[in-house]
Amino acid sequence: TYLCVIVRSRALNKIASHGSRQRSVDRLKTITPPEFSAPTPLEQASLTEQSQQVQQALGQLPDKQRQILELNYYQGMSHGDIAQQLELPLGTIKSRARQGLVKLRQLLGDAVG
After folding, report:
1. Model-level pTM?
2. I want to staple 57 with a disulfide (CB 3.0 to 4.6 A). Which of 42, 74, 101, 107 is the partner?
3. How far, CA to CA in Å, does 61 sit from each of 1, 26, 85?
4. pLDDT tens digit string along 9-47?
5. What is the spatial distance between Cα 94 and Cα 99, in angstroms, rounded to a whole number?
């Protein structure tokens, strides 16, 4: 009797869970993502200025730090991938990336929020 009650209870939980999950999926299908508008000319000018400031600051970094940050952020490579490509230890890559980010923060200050 006990085993039958447990099996029945679990079967009912599975059925309820599946129905709940299906309703959630159906609800998500009906939600439309918000429309993203193109940036205004003022926003575009601000983004361009910020991009130029970041590029200038990157140019002031030592080549080893700049290369790692560019591979990480512009190429989307992980620290492990960068370590393999540059044939350097992972710890070295992480240290240089951190040092580069700290230096960038100092160079940029509050210029880029």
Report:
1. 0.59
2. 107
3. 74, 50, 20
4. 888 777 777 777 777 777 777 776 666 677 788 888 888
5. 9
